[in-house]
Amino acid sequence: LNDLEQRGVFRILGATLDIRAKLAAAYTPEDIDKIGDGIVAFLGLAQKIADPQSVAFMEKFAEIPSKLDLAVSKDCGPWGLFSACSDPDVKKGLGVLMELTKAMGKLKANGNGAASVEQQEGSEPQEKT
């Protein structure tokens, strides 16, 4: 027991009981069930985000705002975009954007986020004509 006390286990258990008391005072049992379901779903998302490739992508992406100087940004129309494509960084950025756009297109499914039968079975959905 002394070892558990030294490691702070009892302190954590006490804090957990305080949290449970606050939850019980603020929410109904049904609310707590819904919150629990949400936490489980969120942990599933966190597990996917914890993939090393996802973490590396998000770390690189999070650095972008600190490297931007919006004061030097200019208005850009179609011709400006066309001429900007001669810049190698713009080309690389558009390549990344295209890959992200393709991945987001696969999310659309039936327009409500639910996967279509074709997607669930692994085949591509047919385009409507």
What does this protein look like?
With 129 residues, this protein is mostly helical. It folds into 2 domains: 1-55, no CATH class; 77-113, no CATH class. The chain is 71% helix and 0% strand. The protein contains 7 helices and no strands. The protein has helices spanning 2-6, 9-26, 29-49, 52-67, 78-84, 88-107, 117-121. The radius of gyration is 24 Å and the shape is elongated. The model has no long low-confidence stretch (mean pLDDT 86).
Summarize the structure.
The chain is built from 7 helices and no strands.
Proportion of beta-strand residues: under 5%
Radius of gyration: 24 Å
Derived from helix and strand composition plus strand pairing, the structural class reads: mainly alpha
The structural domain count equals: 2
Main traits of this protein?
129 residues; mainly alpha; 7 helices
Per-chain topology:
Blueprint: H1 2-6, H2 9-26, H3 29-49, H4 52-67, H5 78-84, H6 88-107, H7 117-121
